[in-house]
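Example with several molecule types.
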Amino acid sequence: MAFRDYDPYERDYGIVPDIVKQFVVYLYRHIRERNIPEIESMYEVSFPKLSDRYFKQGPWPPVDAISDLVDQDHVFCLLYKELYFRHLYAKTQPSLRARCESWDNYCDLFGVILHGNVNMLLPNSWLWAMVDEFLYQFQSFAQYRTKLAGKSAEEIELLKKCDKVWNILDVLNVLQALIDKSGIVAELSRDGGAELAAHDGYIPGQSNVLRMLGYFSLVGQLRVHCLIGDYSTGLQSLFPLNLFERGKLYTQLLSGCHITLFYYSSFAYLMLQRYTDAGRCLNAILSYIHRVKQLHARNAAYDQILKKNEQMYALLALVVGLCPAVQSTLDEHVLVALKDKFGEKLQRMFRGDEGLFDEAFMYGCPKFITAAPPAYDNPSAAGPQEAYLRQRSLFLRQVGGVSRLPLLKQYLLLYSSISLPKLAGLLETDEATLRTALACLKKSNYCLQWDGGRDMTSGSFTSTADIDFYIDVDTATGAELVMLSDNITTRHQAELLSRHIVKFEAIVRDLEAPPVAAAAPAQAAY
Amino acid sequence: MEVRGVDRYQPEKLAVLERNLEEQITGTAKYSLDVATAVFRLYQLQPSVARKELIARALLKALSQMPQQDYRILIHLLPERLVAEEPVSSVVLLAQHLEACNLQDFWAATGSCKDTISKVPGFQDAIRNYVLHSLSITFQRVSLRVLGDWLKLDSSALQQLLADKAKAGWKVQGEVVCLPLNAFNTAVQKRKADLISFEAVAPVVKSSVATA
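Resulting structure tokens for the full complex:
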């Protein structure tokens, strides 16, 4: 398979279209004048439009072709290159050289922001996209370098030399530096993000660049940690963002960021076996997407949002399959959508069908990476799927632990108390195995749940069982009994009745209205 | 030892972290999951410097924190190649038995990693505590024989243990041991009687006010 390698220095960019030149000049001017609405409109509308019209198959003009138009402004050139590489990654398969150059560009850009005194204003959506793209390119490189099979010997040699490029420690250190330098943690701890939300992210009189990059790097760290399987550190690095008290969470205004935050958090909770917390996060984000979907219908990001939506429903199916009690905490429309997409599969998951868990995991999980560079001298040692297979096998083991329990549960549902030997006979197993299985069932419902505080990894143990039981020994006979608790639910009819009362009264009102008006409503009632 | 912020990503600190981890295992330093996580993370980055016997011991230490999820957190960080060989593989097998509550197999398997276990003081006691805890969420009363099997203790050691636990609510009545009652091993008759919320009847009130 031949990739289309775009080496910008070989292509002749003699003629840059005039309209593109205009775009560059205006963008430069607006950035200098800190004119946020204009910058935003150029970034979100003009840039995609021009990309579509002139650069559908190839990259934008290289920075040298346009740098004269902007007085060789160093920072603007870095920003332009950021857009340039983003477009390159989206439309073509970037070469190793392009990947290295993009890495250098990001280092320079973040270097300027961290060490220089930047006082420009940039749209928050651009800043989020910068962090998002930075991590996407990092992920892409990590996967690129493990695919040794299709590469020639000299490519592998070049790769070996590029060990400093897209190194995970550097990526994490950059994110950490942005967080530290921007002081975002102290700011958010102080007021919980109120000032940020009040000013829509642009606090007047200050540059928003460093602060917002710090903010978005918190989410970025969560993402990187989840990709290497470090779930608890990922959740810890979110401090002081609070997933469960979302009133002042700024990310709600930027759907891409909000979705990323909750997708990775709920995945982390799932892998840490904290099913109720995972369910809560998924519920929150799926309701959010349901609300804001229509606003993005024409946006380039719409497809991304839909894809993540489907992935998160797969994760929700996993959570519900492992902990059915979570269903009662979900919003109505989320539950309905889940049943639509997974209805019959869920039933099979409840009965312990491991294959379905595997399928849903494969669809819903992020693209894991291994932190270590591959063994270049031994291409067959570990393939590009290594990280994914590792996390998958750990997850399936988690599933395997509970998949043999549904039959037991079904029997337990039939009784309010049953002696252990009798139950063992029904299940065709011996008492020791049964005792183990019962203890296992009890343990699987004993989950950590967040119960307040700023630390997203804290919590206390609660029972998430849909059937409660305990084992007792009858003192008289010495027989062991399994005692189940009754869950008596008194159905409340209030809502149903009041709805019907109101409807009925409306009908009666219409019937009693003066004849002229009564004719049409009387027909409408039927 | 706290590992926060930028400390998490410094490979130069690996030796310091490893030393602290060893101290935690022997009990001279306070237990902190962050240190083990940092060490394992750096091992994932450079598998060649990974010390397998330290991994095995750290995993045992994490396992003794059950029911906390420390072991799960650590095991996700280790790639296949670090887990496939001794002594880590037998520890992983131990953990699998423990997570499945398969205590017969668990105690049998401890034989195969006796060396590693001997280097983690307090491991067996911690596991016994955990077993007692699991029992207390599942059983209200349990026979002495079952208890002895699950804890792998002979009768005199078992009596000793129960005597120690008497203050915590564990009582022996003949051949049966009564466990302390808690929220998880008592039958609670949950009556989910929903109170009628005002929002449910508000439309009725509104419409009756309108027609009045």
